[in-house]
Amino acid sequence: MNHNQRQREPKISLVLYHLFKWSVVNPMLRGYFQGHIYGAENMPKSGPVLVVANHASDFDPPIVSSCVRRPVSYMAKQELFKVPILAPAIRAYGAYPVKRGGSARGAIQAALEQLEQGWAVGVFLQGTRTGDGRIPDPKLGAALIAAKAQVPLVPVSLWGTHRILPRGTKFPKPLPVTVRIGQPIAPPESSKDKVALQAVTEYCCDRIHTMHDLGR
Q1: Which residues contact 152 (CB under 8 A, 6 or more apart)?
Q2: What is the DSSP string of 5-65?
Q3: Going along 48-131, which residue ranges are E strands?
Q4: Helix (H) or strand (E) holding 176
């Protein structure tokens, strides 16, 4: 790990995170969605880390961030950062710009820069949402980033989010959601070892699926 890396995200981001978590996300998760959270103690309280998860809903990013007890930085499309009021707000929450249709190298570099700033960076292993929350084709990006930065990966399973906003509906249904957070996984030793990258990716995927299959 680079010794120049910061160990925590900026203070303003932490303040905004707690305001949003306790006023909006946590009440909705605990109350409306009857949320259950397991393994929150597995998440490192400080230091750069990659949070890897399955993905089935637009609700997933704020839910994950709330459950791991610290802000999680996600990529967002570059166009959002041109909106005067929105841009500084989403930057404060940890979003970082990635050009739509741009190179994977650019997205990886942006994630590495966030890790240098002490953020927990969120990556969905499938790269996009899936209808059932499973990960049929995990991408190597998370393992590659972890190897380059030499930071641990924390697997997170979201169960039930795929059902709360079915296609064609405009309002989320009050269905149960469960989040399980696994123990940190060591990064590959080298970003050039494709076998190791694949092995770590598959292990992360297996851990998420195992937790997911526990259901409620």
Answers
A1: 44, 49, 50, 146, 184, 185, 186, 187
A2: --SS--HHHHHHHHHHIIIIIHHIIIIIT--EEE-GGGS-SSS-EEEEE----TTHHHHHH
A3: 49-53, 72-73, 75-77, 96-98, 120-124
A4: none
Q: How confident is the model over 41-100, as pLDDT tens digits?
A: 999 999 999 999 999 998 898 899 999 999 999 988 788 788 877 777 777 778 887 776
- CB under 8 Å to 34, separation ≥6 — which residues? 174, 176, 177
pLDDT in tens, 29-51: 999 999 999 999 999 999 999 99
- The 3-state DSSP class for residue 124 equals strand
SS3 96: strand
Interatomic CA distance for residues 99 and 30, integer angstroms: 35
107 Cβ neighbours under 8 A, 6+ residues apart: 75, 98, 141
* Residue (of 195, 188, 68, 193) closest to 122 by Cα position: 68
At 185 the three-state DSSP class reads strand
| 26-41 residues labelled b (16+ CB within 10 A) or e (exposed) | bebbeeebebbbebee
Report the C-alpha gap between 205 and 216 in whole angstroms. 19
Classify 69 in phi/psi space as left (phi over 0), alpha (psi -120 to 50) or beta: left
Helices (H) and strands (E) in the chain, counts: 7, 8
